[in-house]
Amino acid sequence: MRSTPLIMGALAVAATSALVGAGGAAHAGEPTTTRERGIVVECTGTVHGRSIYASLYENDTYANVLQVLIGDDEHQVGGSREDRDGFLERGQVTASVKVDGTRARITGTARRVGDRLPVHDEYDDAGQHITATGFHRSLDTDLRLTWRGRSVPLDCDTAFAYRLSVTKESTVE
What we know:
This protein is mainly beta. Helix content is 8%, strand content 61%. The chain has one domain (5-26, 37-116, 138-160).
């Protein structure tokens, strides 16, 4: 795998905080802590001569989000959606979203591999000091995207599962 543990940890924290808006800001002096677990799977590939970016994000506290973008610049089409149940179950990945009027389907397998790696990150965002501590573990994926009659492999080198304790504390009075 090309990613370092620090980069993967930062991705987990960034992915976790990307959907945090629903939680609202903590009041001064009242930190809040959540336990969060999920997956971050970002993939690339090519279909019909066009680049693919696909992201499957699961967070058991906030949301599960699928995003698929196909093409570049002004010729890009895409779709995204939330799914209450997520996309990975017992090692099997199943996800779909409409892209330019046609269903884009991601299927295959993902399994945890290797050791759990410790993660600790602190940063300020949107008036909050956020501390995330926990673990992540690499995911070995074998995924394909099917769109407009063609099925192509996806490269998801940086995929990982995470378990974090996330504490948010207001930085404003």
